[in-house]
Structures are given as C-alpha cells and as structure tokens.
Design brief:
Strand content: under 5%
Strand order of the largest sheet: 1-2
Number of strands: 2
Number of helices: 7
Largest sheet: 2 strands, antiparallel
Order of helices and strands: EEHHHHHHH
Structural class: mainly alpha
Radius of gyration: 28 Å
Oligomer: single chain
Shape: globular
C-alpha cells in the first residue's frame, strides 16, 4: 500500500498508473466509458476538393467517350449498329453486369429487413463477394474482347473509364436513400 503524498493536513492517497502518467488524466475519467452509450447518427463527411475534382474528371471523360464514340458516331449508336462488334461476348458481358447489379440490389434493398436479426446473412453476403468480383472481371474482359475491333488497344482504358464513372455515380443513385432511419429521430410528440 502506498503511504500517500503529504499535504497540508495529512496524507492523501494517489493512484499511479503507467498508462495515465504521461497524459495527466485521472482513472476516474474512464470509469463510465464502459457503459454503452447510444451513438448519434453519423452524417456524411464532406468531400475534399481533390475528391470532387477526381469525380468530375471521371464523369467528364465518360461523357466524352459516350458522346464522341469513334469520332464518327456516338458510343450508343456504335453498340447497337456497328457490325465490327462481337455480339456474343458483348451480351455475355452485359449479362454479367446485370448479375452484379441484381446482387447489389438484392443485398441493399431486399434483405434490408433481415440485417438486424440474422448474422448468417452477413456471412453469406461476404461469401458471395469473390464470385461477384470474378463475374465483374470476366465481364470486363468480355467487353474488351467485344469492342477490340473498334478501338484496339484503347479499348482497355475506355472500358475502365466507363467502369470508374459508374463507380463515381453509384453513391448518388436512389439506392442510398433506402437506408433505415432511426425511429425516434423524427418524433414530434
């Protein structure tokens, strides 16, 4: 036992800890921190101007690709009417992208009610991620193979730019508004 520190009228007992010695905090400061406190809802963090500039560049380059296409007609017209495109790989790539979109819609919206009670759902959704990733990579390769006769070596950066523009636009889509709201946050009574 410690004898204490002499003070004006007697001895005062002190607690010494290596963890608190350098910061000057007292042990009693963390005494109540073990209780679970309800957290306030997290608000989206503001983006820096560099992130905004990167997003604008990805979107602008995708618009440039879609609008100019092969300098004679736009990208959409080329996809529907150009005979140089290999249709079977293009359709298989579109099928893979639609599988990925269906999976993300399924996990973000349809299983929304089961998230609270089912831990197995969280495990099954992470188990599917390697398959979804491989489907995405195969779709990318199929798109590159299907569009190679038009742009040759430029097909790789063009398809990657379109993919990145989709990734930039995705958080702004309607799917993000279906998140569960705290029930007591909007109470008026």
């Amino acid at each position: 036992m410690s004898g204490g520190t002499p003070t004006g009228g007697g001895l005062m007992r002190q607690r010494h800890s290596q963890g608190y010695a350098s910061s000057g905090d007292d042990l009693e400061d963390d005494a109540c921190s073990s209780r679970v406190r309800p957290q306030s809802p997290k608000f989206p963090e503001t983006r820096t101007w560099v992130e905004v500039l990167e997003n604008v560049l990805w979107i602008a380059s995708a618009v440039f690709i879609i609008y100019l296409g092969d300098w004679h007609s736009n990208f959409i017209y080329i996809l529907f009417h150009d005979g140089r495109i290999k249709r079977t790989p293009l359709y298989l790539g579109l099928f893979g992208v639609s599988l990925n979109v269906a999976y993300f819609v399924h996990t973000s919206m349809l299983l929304w009610g089961f998230r609270k009670s089912s831990e197995r759902w969280e495990l099954s959704s992470t188990d599917a991620l390697p398959y979804i990733t491989s489907i995405g990579l195969v779709s990318f390769c199929l798109f590159c193979y299907a569009l190679w006769p038009i742009w040759s070596f430029l097909t790789l950066p063009l398809v990657f730019t379109l993919f990145m523009a989709c990734m930039v636009i995705l958080p702004y889509m309607v799917l993000g508004t279906f998140k569960q709201q705290p029930s007591d946050m909007f109470r008026i009574d």
